[in-house]
Specification:
The structure holds 2 protein chains of 2 kinds. Helix content of chain A is 0%, strand content 53%. In chain A, strands 2, 4, 5, 9, 10 and 11 form a 6-stranded mixed beta sheet that branches. Chain A has a 5-stranded antiparallel beta sheet with strand order 1-3-8-7-6, with no helix packed on it. By secondary structure, chain B is an all-beta fold. Chain B has no helices and 11 strands. The chains are: A mainly beta, B mainly beta. Chains A and B meet through β4, β5, β9 and β10 of A and β4, β5, β9 and β10 of B.
């Protein structure tokens, strides 16, 4: 079983829709949670970073963390065609033997059509 | 401020050769992590350097090695290349203190 599970999709939505992307994890040591967006042939771009349970909002993006259920989500409001990309969740623990190591989900391919 | 710079962007190598990839982190960042990204395995952690010391290493063979210089720039070396080493190699820069990690554009390595 992978430490981080992410539905690979693909996910196709109309412009303006609310998108929900999700990851579950099994390692209770994970304390830091990130969402990245990756366009084809580019490096991952950091969208959200959070380390506490609850919601964090940044523009059209909301990251939600539920440590008790080991479940994180990213919501995209008013989705745009430019949001079409692969979305990756990533997480890490608090250091020790895991310095600098992010564990990634497989990524969800999102297409927003006009 | 300048982002993470990886060079070269593309490389084609022959089986058995070796290759060196370079990563310049964001100014002030002392941690550089390296990842391999393939369609089948996704993003997998190779190793992390902080202030010229390797602090962490993933499950890759010894053919994969790295180093970090005093200016925090890092290099990754792969010796005796195999076809399966074809991948996008990404480096990530951070302060090293459980903060956000920022990625470069990657080096796409093709082994023929």
């Amino acid at each position: 079983q992978k430490e981080v599970e992410q539905d690979p999709g693909p996910l196709s939505v109309p412009e303006g829709a609310i998108v929900s992307l999700n990851c579950t994890y099994s390692n209770s040591a994970f304390q830091y949670f990130m969402w990245y967006r990756q366009y084809s042939r580019k490096g991952p771009e950091l969208l959200m970073y959070t380390y506490s349970s609850g919601n964090k909002e940044d523009g059209r993006f909301t990251a939600q963390v539920d440590k008790s259920s080991k479940y994180i989500s990213l919501f995209i409001r008013d989705s745009q065609p430019s949001d079409s990309a692969t979305y990756l969740c990533a997480m890490s623990d608090a250091g020790g033997t895991s310095y600098g190591k992010l564990t990634f989900g497989q990524g969800t391919i999102l297409t927003v059509h006009p | 401020k300048a982002g993470v710079t990886q060079t070269p962007r593309y490389l084609i190598k022959t089986r058995g050769q070796q290759v060196t990839l370079s990563c310049s982190p964001i100014s002030g960042h002392r941690s550089v992590s390296w990842y391999q990204q393939t369609p089948g395995q996704g993003l997998q952690f190779l190793f992390e350097y902080f202030s010229e010391t390797q602090r962490n290493k993933g499950n890759f063979p010894g053919r994969f090695s790295g180093r970090q210089f005093s200016n925090s720039r890092s290099e990754m070396n792969v010796s005796t290349l195999e076809l399966g080493d074809s991948a996008l190699y990404l480096c990530a820069s951070s302060t090293g203190m459980n903060t956000e990690a920022f990625f470069g554009q990657g080096t796409r390595l093709t082994v023929v």
